[in-house]
Amino acid sequence: MQKYDYQRKRRNALPEYISVISANKCAKIKIDDIEVIEQEGRKVHVITAAKDFSFYGGLNTIAGSLAERAFYRPIKRLIINLDHVSDISSYSVNFHSGQSVALGKNALLSTKRAYKRYLLRYPPYTIWEPMELSGASVSEPYSGEKNVLMEGDPDVKTDINKEEKLPN
Fold first, then answer.
1. Could you read off the pLDDT of 106-118 as tens digits, one per residue?
2. Among 54, 137, 144, 158, which has the highest number of CB atoms less than 10 A from its own CB?
3. What does the angle CA 95 – CA 101 – CA 102 come to, to the nearest 5 degrees?
């Protein structure tokens, strides 16, 4: 009978929590709940939808725990969780909780590219482009719409089963 190494499995598993220890608080934060991690000087702010945590340290100490997850680092002092991003608009990344982070032009472009790659990992996806409506309301068909021919309609003078011949 082969002995199963539980310690090896635990060492190779992704961590579920990070610990935050400061002068006022000690906390265990679930990694999936983190929206933003921001460094301001020597202080690191871990922002979730429910609370904000602050402690002295560096982003590189946390970055190792975030490997192989949906976190992206657009600039040196900021890490965002792409799982919580609702949309990216002009110069800001918006989250489901209502928070937003402002970014510069280059960082925003790289974040948009990373977010598109993130979204393409989860099919079904559609490439959506807004349609232009020519002054018609949603309930009314626009003027260029062709009438749909139905079988058995007495007003229809053409046979639906016949195919129209295309010019050569």
1. 999 999 999 998 8
2. 54
3. 140
